[in-house]
From TrEMBL:
Keyword Repeat appears in the UniProt entry: yes
SUPFAM superfamilies reported for this sequence: TPR-like
Entry keyword annotation includes Amino-acid biosynthesis: no
Assigned protein family: Belongs to the TTC38 family.
PANTHER family (alphabetical): TETRATRICOPEPTIDE REPEAT PROTEIN 38
Keywords: Repeat, TPR repeat
Protein name per the record: Tetratricopeptide repeat protein 38
Amino acid sequence: MEEDAWGNAVTAASAEAARALDETALAYMGFRLDTGAHLKAALTADPEMPLALIYRGYFFLLFCHPALARKAAETRERLLPMAEGGALNARERLHFRALDLWVDGDMQGANDAWEAVMLDWPFDPMAIRLAHYTSFYMRGGTAMRRQSARVIRDWAGRDLPGAGFIHGVHAFSCEESGDYANAERHGRMAVEMNPADIWATHAVAHAMEMQGRHREGIGWIRANEADWNRTNNFRFHVWWHRCLYHLELGEHDEVLALYDRAVRAESTDEYLDITNGVAMLWRLEQEGVNVGGRWDELADRSAERVHDHILCFADMHYVMALAAAGREAEAKDMIAAMRDASDGDFSSQGEVYRRIGLPLAEAVVAARAGRHQQVLDTLLPVREDIALVGGSHAQRDVFERTLLESALAAGKGALARALAAERVDAKATSAYGWRRYADALDLCGDAEGARAARAEMARLAA
């Protein structure tokens, strides 16, 4: 039995194996390219190290890819005799339980297992980070905030490896629960501790976006991006956030340039990379920007994932890409496959597909086809459930925008005015919100109100 960098007992054949696993956890928390290399080193030092094998299973599942999910299941089978034979300590048994449940699609059960780890072992960074991840795609900011609040005071002020990462986790939890001041405080603290902490940088970027601090947000990302040379594809997502700032400022050429050289510089099949591209092109077209042939590449990549049905959030964007590229038949086939896959599926995501995924997918296809009344009829009754699809407030905003655009296109002035009024109340510095509010007031015959709204839009854009 060895001890990890945070004082937790680890079943390992050597101190070398335990140290390699520590580095694996730190690399994962930092979104580093060498995460796999450290895990390989741990398993080379001890091929039967239970927690290293569990981590491998976790990493397979994080890709949200069916082939890798099967590898996670194989890893579980390899671990099962160890778990049943008493080779795991109490903390490791809870981690195995999390993997076991997650392989079966029970993200909530896995989340509960990590919460149990955090109660008795608050200095377990992997449990903290994975609970954070799964809550993000299930229960949202309130659950995330509750989880990170339980441990942040344990870590604060302690000279522990990766302590800054826990502040970054808490920063994003605060942002998603609406506490932007604490989000920025903890995020900046984390970046001061480790300038390469891209998750903390991202948390502050979120807070600035939600507060309409667009130019400040651009400066924040520019100031930190030089430290991301060792990070993985997540840097593409942070550049996506920079695109959001430029979009609000009406700097469409800069958005497209950033898209081409940063957000989608590589044609990857990683789900977050695809969702970045889809969500940005969708927003650009809503503002009348010609995006050229950029949809084709995203649609081709999405067509490769039409039978995944692992994460509803990702599937929504695959449907959007197919519909936007004019491949409505394929988008409808994917929706049919989603319906078949979710029928009788009682996993955590199965319920999400049935409750919001299917109507949301049908609505985005209808929006692209110009069937705007269908969008309203489909989305309005389930609007409050959109959060269940997962993702951040900023990411899900593409669906709120689609509802507003359809209300305007359908000529529903009163509804459009109500939706736009909600928007400018929540984001008073959004030029897009004021523009659409003016359009809605025009539909309602309120020319004076529309002029005032456009004056505010012009003031913000100046």
